[in-house]
Amino acid sequence: MTETQIIDQLKEIIKPFLEYEDDAIFAGIKPDTNLLDELNLDSVDLIEIVIEIEGAFDIKIADTEIQQIKTVHDVVELIKTKLAAK
Question: How many CB atoms within 10 Å of residue 81?
């Protein structure tokens, strides 16, 4: 799976958690987008997103790994690492 495919799937997972499902905000999600600050997600949203990611990619993410997630890039790298370890 390519990084672009991971980002596209990740965007689809994140979209329902956005305060407003605004296409401009959605289109503006880039690798350096901060999940909590720029997308106005909270820690509960992040946990729910991680659960969705685990199901979508058939991976497990530890609580300590969740604490390291700040940006879309962080999530993508974590997913790539987990997929490579399978």
Answer: 11
Among residues 33, 41, 18, which one has the least CA distance to residue 71?
33
pLDDT at position 24 is: 66
The overall pTM is greater than 0.85: yes
42 is catalytic: yes
At 15 the three-state DSSP class reads helix
Domains and CATH numbers, the chain: 3-84 (1.10.1200.10)
The active-site residue out of 42, 45, 63, 74 is 42
Alpha-helix runs per DSSP H in 20-86: 23-27, 43-57, 63-66, 72-84
Provide the pLDDT for residue 23: 66
What is the residue-averaged pLDDT of the chain? 90
